[in-house]
Amino acid sequence: MNYLISSLIGFILGSFPTAFLLLRKYRNLDITSQGSGNMGAMNALVVTKSKFIGIAVLLVDALKGLLSVYLVLLFLPVNFVYPALALLFAVFSHCYNPWLKLKGGRGLATAAGGTALLFPFILIAWLLVWFIAYLIKRDIIFANISATILSLIIVFSSVNIAYKYSFPQADTSGSLILFSCSLMLIIFTRHIDPLKELMSNKKLFIKDRK
């Protein structure tokens, strides 16, 4: 039963369509048909040109992940699997929103909010790789994809260290790896289309000369 409760908490919180509701209310816009159609902070910022709305979407989306983990830790027995399930379902329902024909965001803010509590090791690894990748190409999508793949490799290569920095501590390193793989897989699926666009752009493989 606790597995089901954890999953439902994450799924319900993650499905809150932050960008869709904010843009509908304050700009009378349907974000699913504007810009990239992505329901995340970046597209909200690009479409509205409002830093306030962009930051608001970012914070609320992160809060969805954080609350999913926090509520499970607050009300259910202390076990890594329960908040991990809640976060996975929060990210999944954010990325594939059940109320908006499975349209959603890319899951990064929601994942960041939850991992900040549950598994900060992977969040720190992701952020470090992201900044390095962004400095190399000055492209957000390239940085997102690079960080998603390489942070997972970091967890694999240093699982004994990562194991010590999960809260609550995972029962086994295997459950930690399974959680990390599942989380990054969900995020990666939302980056497949932009990845195809990047790969079709020859500039992806050419170092900028500036």
Protein architecture, described:
- Helix content is 71%, strand content 0%.
- It has 11 helices and no strands.
- The protein has helices spanning 2-14, 18-27, 41-48, 51-75, 81-95, 108-118, 120-137, 140-157, 159-163, 173-189, 192-200.
- The longest helix is centred in the N-terminal third of the chain and has 25 residues, at 51-75.
- It is globular.
**How do the helices and strands follow one another from N- to C-terminus?**
HHHHHHHHHHH
The proportion of residues forming helix, as a percent range, comes to over 70%
Biggest sheet layout: none
Mean pLDDT, all residues: 92
In the predicted model, the low-confidence regions spanning at least 5 consecutive residues are: none
Over all CA atoms, what is the radius of gyration? 17 Å
Structural class: mainly alpha
Number of helices: 11
What is the beta-strand fraction?
under 5%
Q: Looking at the structure, what is the overall shape?
A: globular
The first-to-last residue Cα distance is 57 Å
* E-strand count: 0
As for the number of domains, it is 1
Characteristic terms for this protein:
210 residues; mainly alpha; globular
Task: Spell out the blueprint of helices and strands.
Blueprint: H1 2-14, H2 18-27, H3 41-48, H4 51-75, H5 81-95, H6 108-118, H7 120-137, H8 140-157, H9 159-163, H10 173-189, H11 192-200
Helix pairs in contact: 1-4, 1-5, 2-4, 3-4, 4-5, 4-6, 5-6, 5-10, 6-7, 7-8, 8-10
